[in-house]
Amino acid sequence: MYILDLIGTFAFAVAGAFQARERNLNIFAVVLLGIVTAVGGGTFRDLVIGRTPLFYLKDQNYLLLSIVGGVATYFIPHFFKRGFSFFRFLDSLGLAAFAIIGISVTSSHLFQGNPRGIIALMVCVIMGTITGVGGGIIRNALTGALPSVFNQESTYIPAAFSGALLFYVLMFMDTNTAIFVSMAATLAIREIIAEHGVYKKV
Questions:
Q1: What gap in Å lies between CA 56 and CA 101, rounded to an integer?
Q2: Which in 99, 119, 138, 202 has the greatest CB count within 10 A?
Q3: Tens-digit pLDDT profile for residues 137-175
Q4: Can you tell me the distance from the alpha carbon of 7 to that of 173, in angstroms, rounded to the nearest whole number?
Q5: pTM
Q6: Sign of the CA dihedral with 47 first, then 51, 52, and 56 last
Q7: Which distant-in-sequence residues (6+ apart) come within 8 Å of 58 by Cβ?
Q8: Quick check: 20 pLDDT over 90?
Q9: Of 114, 121, 101, 119, the residue nearest 45 (C-alpha)
């Protein structure tokens, strides 16, 4: 999961930076929006549940990968555009991983690893979903655009929510099964149900 989390962080950074690069923004804006997309959801989650220091201050690999993704996208945007399908898949993997990690972090921090009850379910699933989609929402808000995840045709929020909910329900029975089913559901919604297109759907 840690490796998937890092892969997702890099993919999210590329997605955010790619949108900024398409707007002909300068390198500072491109890298900044890449970082915001990559760590924004987790930052919002940690602030809401009172978890400090923030995760990327404890493990600087997240921030370093975000910066690398942004810089690389600025200088070689055509490479990422040509490899869109691959990076979209990585992005979907990251979304699936982020939803699961959001629940795991919230569960351990707020409920001591035993998040039972309707309140725990709601909080964990919401935080899992926000961990996955929050960065993209913040990125779009900074660029003055309506977050694309709110569009009717976007499957981003349904995918994150479904993955988070399935993981929460199944984790009480078997963690490995919960991870597998959750990720499979998220990937199915993003890669099979969703229309294929450019990063505008991310």
A1: 14
A2: 99
A3: 998 888 887 777 888 778 889 999 999 999 999 999 999
A4: 27
A5: 0.86
A6: negative
A7: none
A8: no
A9: 101
**What is the residue whose two structure tokens read 């919401």?**
126
The 8-class DSSP code of residue 198 comes to: S
Evaluated on CA atoms 191, 62, 10, 32, the torsion sign reads: positive
Helix or strand (DSSP H, E) at 177 = helix 175-188
Rounded Cα distance between 11 and 122, Å, is 28
Query: 83 with 22: CB under 8 angstroms?
Result: no
Beta strands in the chain (DSSP E): none
Nearest CA among 67, 66, 65, 42 for reference residue 54: 42
Percentage of the chain with pLDDT > 70?
Answer: 94
Assign 200 a pLDDT band (cuts: 50, 70, 90). Answer: very low
pLDDT at 104 over 70: yes
